[in-house]
Amino acid sequence: MFADGLFLGFAVLAVLGAAGLVVFRHPMNGAMSFVVTLISLAGLYALLSAKLIFALQLIVYAGAIMSLIVFIIMFLNIQPSDLPKEETKLVYILGGLAVVLPIGLFLAKIVKSLPLSSTAILGNDFGGVKQVGLLLFKDWLVPFEIVSILLLISLIGAVVLAGKKEAVK
Amino acid sequence: MSQLDILLIVLRVAFGAFVPLCFIAVLVWMERRGAAYFQDRSGPNRANIFGFRAGGLVQNLADAVKLITKEDVVPGHITHKFYFVIAPVIVFLIALVSFAAIPFADVLILDGKEYIMQAIPTDLGILWFLAVAGFAVYGIILAGWSSHNKYGVLGGLRAAAQVISYEIPMGLAVISALIVYGTVNLTEMVQFQGQLLFGFIPMWGVVLQPLGAIIFIVAAFAETNRTPFDLAEGESELVAGFHVEYSSMKFGMFFMGEYVAMFTSSAIIVSLYFGGFQIPWLATDALVNNTRLVSFLLMLLLPVLALLFGAWMSKNNRSHYPRENDPRVREANVYAKIMWGLVIALELLLVIFLISGSGGMAARILTAGLQIVTFLVKVTFMCFVYVWVRWTLPRFRYDQLQKLGWQTLLPLSLLNIFVTSAIVVALS
């Protein structure tokens, strides 16, 4: 099955990218492997026929946010000597694995206990731009507006905080 | 899938992949001859194969051979070789892929099936372009950063900051266009532009959204890092900016990527604001229903155009001093023969359309062909505007560039959104 193969590919890439983010020493490597994760997540959304989320994932996360982070990494011009020595890294990774493993096994068990049922693709252009827009502005208008006000507040906060420094000088 | 389906998939993908690649050659030629024209000289016109110069197009071949056979140096001080190698590939591929969702003809209906004429038949349209174009900045950042060179890093910083900040007015200009068209699907947008305003003005985006069109075009110039916004490679300050350490085909990829990006953004400008594949006053239905008339007119028009072009060619393609057996005249004669051969072939093809009549499959195919030609002519003209601006305006200073983006274009595009939505609400 073509879609199954794509799912496997994207899932493996997403997990590998996330692991790379933790394991890589140089921040640029970490950032780029996180970009791989974000793109493969977008691929998974596309497989679920969530077109709008696919585009937004690429525009907002992989395109805008990560390019800002990569930009800042370039701006800082980090030399190998600037990086901290991570001698206890292996211990931390193993310890983290030991903590996370039971949770992962638990989740796997939950997924296994789900009843098997065939799934079909929803019709009516589900996940398209128009459908999601109608849903957001009809059924979920108040939460949507609250979230946008939240974003606006954080935007204003960032501007105020950035301006404060200059006033102190 | 029937054979027709497979054939159309292959054709559409081939169009999406090869037309931008072919346009690299055309655009490089246009840039050089255009620059020469603006500076009152001839430009490169001597490179030839057996005396055939194709108006200077052969120069591109010589350039390609030069770039491919040059030594490919990866400087020893570069530690992140993977990023260094992959950066030009990213720039080039992203420019190519972002063309995939742009329609080059109206929806083709064959045997009752609809084929969306895009390389990727998605209805994401402009969102696809915004999503993919955002990745181009990675190529620039990685190139500048991995070069590990002051000029490279500075050029990368400038380019990245510029691309990121001009994405905002661009996105806002797109939003006001979306308010007018009521869809993100580029094919539907272009179909919308086939209508007539007050019954006689084509309803092109530039008529409905003049301010948005200007903002979008300015932002598109900045996004492609073209003059007057090509500070990333300001030769007098930064040598060559982010591609200073690149040689051979790795530089060639950046070079080609720039022209593919220019082609793609011209295509998106044309689709959003200049009616895309629409022939003014002749919507798809009008063309399909009047195939006989259209093909008859084309049969009359083609020889006239060929005659004019041949006269222009034989007047200009000759040596400027008396010469025995002038090779340039011989060259022009060969071109004229090829051109007339093409005209005869097209006339024969049009006879078939004339016989087959309107409404059927043949009419649809003729319409699609005409729309593809219209689209390419419009895009070529938009690319010429890029060349035109490059050789007319001097480069901005960096602070002027950022000021223009944040203090002029951003408020203007916000204002444009409010005015547009007020008018749309008032009219509906």
Main features:
heterodimer, A: 169 residues, mainly alpha, Four Helix Bundle (Hemerythrin (Met), subunit A), 0% strand, globular, B: 428 residues, two-stranded antiparallel ribbon, two-stranded antiparallel sheet, 16 helices
> What Rg of chain A is obtained from the alpha carbons, in whole angstroms?
21 Å
Give the integer mean of the pLDDT values of chain B.
Answer: 85
Task: Give me the CATH superfamily of the domain at 1-84 in chain A.
Answer: NADH-ubiquinone/plastoquinone oxidoreductase chain 6, subunit NuoJ
Number of domains of chain B: 1
Uncertain ranges of chain A: none
Structural class call of chain B reads mainly alpha
User: Biggest sheet of chain A: strands, sense, closure?
Assistant: none
Which H/E pattern describes the elements of chain A? HHHHHH
Instruction: Give the percentage of residues in beta strands of chain B.
Output: under 5%
**Strand residue percentage of chain A:** under 5%
Of all chain pairs, the largest interface belongs to: A-B, 23 and 27 residues
CATH architecture of the domain at 1-84 in chain A: Up-down Bundle
Helical run tally of chain A = 6
The CATH topology of the domain at 1-84 in chain A corresponds to Four Helix Bundle (Hemerythrin (Met), subunit A)
Distance between the termini of chain B: 42 Å
Q: Tally the beta strands of chain A.
A: 0
What would you say about this model in short?
The complex is a heterodimer of chains A (169) and B (428). Chain A has 169 residues and is mainly α. Chain A has helices at 2-23, 27-47, 51-76, 89-113, 129-138, 141-168.
